[in-house]
Amino acid sequence: MRTERKVVRRLVVLAAASAALFIGAMPAQADNGPHVSTATNEVKSGIKISDAGQGRCASCHRAHTAKSAYLLNAASEEDLCLSCHGGSGTGATTDVQNGVGYDSSATTYYPDGKTVLTVKRGTQVGALRGGGFEQAMLGTDSATKDTYLYTYADGRVAYRSKNQLIPPAAAPKGTTSSHFGGVGIMWGNGSLSGTVNVGLDMSTTTTGKLECSSCHDPHGNKQYRILKPVPSDSGFATVIPGNTQPGVFIKDTANKVYTTTNYWIAGDPAALADTGTTTTLGATSITDPTPKATTGTTTVSSFQANVAAWCTTCHTRYLAPRSSWKTNSGDAVFTYRHTGDNINGDAASNRNCIQCHVAHGSNAAMPNSAVENPGDTALSTDSRLLRVDDRGVCVMCHNV
C-alpha cells in the first residue's frame, strides 16, 4: 500500500486532508480554507464575486511573479503545501510532516466571512489519524487487545479478539515508511497477469512523479478530504454503476475530525451520521479486482464504504474478496491475497486496506520481521505503512 520515495516527496501535504479522523474537528484543513469549493463550477447567473472567494487565489498563486509552474507562489508544490501543513505552517491546524493536530487560537476570514484566510495554531489536540510524512505518533509498540472464547453454530469453540487498542505515542517519532518516500513503484498497479509485473515504475519519469495534487484536488471538489476520484497517473478508468464518470467517489462530511485516540479505529465514526450508507465497494471476484457496488445490512460512513476501493485505484490488484487466501488469482506476483474489501463497521476489525495501513506515514519498527518487496528476494525492514511493530497487525485479529 505504498507508492514510494523520490516519486512521492510531493504528495506530502495536501494529503493533510486525507490524514485524519477522530477527536475534535478543526478549521482550515485542506477540505476547508482556501481549498473550499465555492460552487462557481455550475450553471448559475449573477454570481457575486466577493461570495465566490476572490481572495483565495493569491494565497497560492501569482499572476506575474510566480516561482514555479502553475503560477505557484513557492519554489515547488511541496513547499507551497508545507507552508500551511508543515511543521511551521501558518495556514492549517494539521501538521502532516510530524503527524500532529492542533486547535486554532485565532482565525482570519476572507471578505465572504466564511472562507478561512489564516489560522494561528493553538494547543496540540492529538495525533493525526493518517500519521505523518517525516514523523508520526502511532504507539506501534504499545498495541493491546482482549481475547475471549467464542462458540460457533456447529459447536466449535475458539478464541477471538476484541477491544484492540493502538494508542497515540507521547511524541512524534521518525517514520519508517511513508508516501513521502520509497523505491518509486506504484505497487500492484495494472491488471492481473501471469506475466511478472510488480506495478507502475514512477521513479524515472517526471510526468508521473507523485505530488500532493496527484491524490487531492487543491481547488476543492466536494469529496472526502478533497480526494480525487481518479488519482493522477493511476490509469483507473472504470465507471462504477450509479456514477457518470470514472473513479471512486467518497462523500464529503459536515463533521471533519482529523485526530485519533486509537489507531486501530480506522473508519470515520464522526462522518457516519451524515454519510451513512449500506452500499459498499468491493472486488468483482477473486480474478477480477474491479470495484463493484454491493448492498449490505451494516450502515457505515461513505469513507469506510469506499476507501479500500479508492486505494486500489492505484494499487489495483490489492482489492480482493474473501477466500482469496486459498484461491489463485492468476497473477504472477499477487497470487494469493488477504481479503481487502471486507467492511463490518466504522469502529475497527475490518479486513480492508485502511484497517492495517495508515495513509501518510508510519513510525512502526520491523527489526524482527524483514520481508521482501513484491517480486523481489532482498529483505527490507520497511514498515509498509503498517500500524503495529513487527507485522503485529496480524495478531490484532488472529490468535496464533
From TrEMBL:
Residues 1-30 form the signal peptide. The keyword Nucleus does not apply. The keyword Signal applies. Keywords: Signal. Pfam families: Paired_CXXCH_1. Residues 54-86 form the Doubled CXXCH motif domain. This is Doubled CXXCH motif domain-containing protein. It comes from Intrasporangium calvum. The lineage of its organism: Bacteria, Bacillati, Actinomycetota, Actinomycetes, Micrococcales.
